[in-house]
Amino acid sequence: MSQFAINLIFVGGSFLLYIAIAVWAKAGSTSDFYVAGGGVHPVTNGMAIGADWMSAASFISMAGLIAAGGYANSTFLMGWTGGYVLLAMLLAPYLRKFGKFTVPEFIGDRYYSPNARLIAVVCLIVASVTYVIGQMAGAGVAFSRFLEVEATNGLMIAAVVVFIYAVLGGMKGITYTQVAQYCVLIVAYTIPAVFISLQLTGNPIPMFGMFSTHAESGLPLLEKLNQVVTDLGFREYTADVDNKLNMVLFTLSLMIGTAGLPHVIIRFFTVPKVSDARWSGGWALVFIALLYLTAPAVASMARLNLMTTIYPEGTQAQPIEYEARPAWIATWEETGLITYEDKNNDGRIQLYNDANADFAGTAADRGWAGNELSVNNDILVLANPEIANLPGWVIGLIAAGGLAAALSTAAGLLLAISSAVSHDLIKGRLNPNISDKGELLAARISMAVAIVVATWLGANPPGFAAQVVALAFGIAAASLFPALMMGIFSKRVNNIGASLGMLSGLLFTLVYIFVYKGWFFIPGTNNLPDTAEYWLLGISPLSIGAVGALVNFAVAFGVSKVTAEPPVEIQELVESVRYPRGAGGAQDH
Amino acid sequence: MSGHSYDAENYWKANLRLIFGSLIIWALVSYGFAILLRPMLAGIPVGGTDLGFWFAQQGSILVFMVLIFFYAWRMNKIDEKFGVHEE
């Protein structure tokens, strides 16, 4: 059977499973559509949060970035898990006690201001749409590979599938399909990693294999990897970074952003009790950690395997001939995500760091005229089983897993966007008398619009999937998280303070990002090149969200101090969310 | 909650203390051991690299998990002690 047929069976089979579950649990009322009736067990909910959370960025893109950046990109690992500590301690239990549907609803009530709610809707939409761009980019890569089509066509197919999928079911459908998706994605991620860890180190557990001995050379795996990459002019894999400020801010931005992202927060509204909201955070992190502890092993092993594929006789010997390249390189070339150019016309593939001036002499001595193979970071995880010569069914499995990750997160985000538009903007502001049916229609139209915008921008994304998603986290970190946290932990912050805080955090962060990444992410419209020497104090646009959050806090406290304190009933509301007693189910007004 | 205002106040203080303590550990393992203090831990070898690298790619995640479960367990106890747990 051809690989194409195997991929179709795995991807098609997993889709049938999700659709069957979605139809079985089809959303009835509007309340079902948003929060699944509040009756989901913490472990189930933790698994659904895991699927919601682990997107194309975590599954497809992250290990590729760690493979390319080594230690410096550990930020993704810490940032995307450490945020759960903040979420479980600073937000989830209190928002659950508050017991409403959406994040803007809390902000509107706590800051007794329809304008604050409106600003929260805008922040939510900007962060979520940016996030969906990353998902579309990742899903596009996965579809283009497994359908063996060009990357742009893969993106279009992804858009259609995501749309059908997200519109089909509401939250209830999504909660149980997401449990299924979690299972598919974690199995798909772990199995190839176990195989590869066994091949390279003899240790079946990747998180331990990574720190054990490379069977072939007898050296510790990471030492072997350091040796191979430095031989080719790259930085040591485990090398420390010089710019620690940027590394700290980037990690912080991802952590705060995790706690400020609406599609994750609304998951905590679906547990029966406040104490369950705390446990849910822990369970979510357990399920997420299964992937996140494996990802760094996948990254280091894939990097090593890639290098040994190109230099089978060792880095001091000649690289392979282009004609003798493995089949996976040829298939990925069709998608345009791997490109080869024979710069020195020797028919071989030279893969090395041609940007390293210290290495230029060695390269010249070896007759190399520049790096000849460019490999898109986002393909590494998907190509990983092929690089390691694993059987065809593993490749089919990973395609299904990657799509599960992208689809589940895109659906969760689209739900957050559509509920913000239909529930907070239209029902809460423009037309309070809208019927249930009208509200659902508005929700679906806003999903469609979000997908079109994200697909259009996803064709030329402002970075690799995980980097685009990191931008979304920065935006959420700078806008929503401070308003939510101050709403619970301070009785003094008032409507004007919170509104101006959110606006200044959002604008500050967006402007900084757009200056380097292009206005509204349109390629070519950036004012400054996006390289370290142009960044303010060496702070990358991916890290600026942490600074934006500080701006938000400072403005909110400053303005609140010189304006009237919140009315007594609001202070009582803040008091009441702090104590679990008396929490009912999530309710509509 | 006005009827239990004294208890409520101490309940909130106990919660804040617990959060504060947990977040110190949270920051220490990630921003501390894994990033800023990594050069100081460079002498402690772990499988071909150093302890700071291990904290950056494994250790911090493990500690985060323990922290959340510890907080949930402690906090549910505190809820009961102050009588603010759900019926």
UniProtKB/TrEMBL annotation, chain B:
Keywords: Membrane, Transmembrane, Transmembrane helix. It comes from Marinobacter halophilus. This is DUF4212 domain-containing protein. It comes from the Bacteria. Pfam families: DUF4212. Residues 9-85 form the Sodium symporter small subunit domain. The keyword Nuclease does not apply. Coiled coil: none annotated.
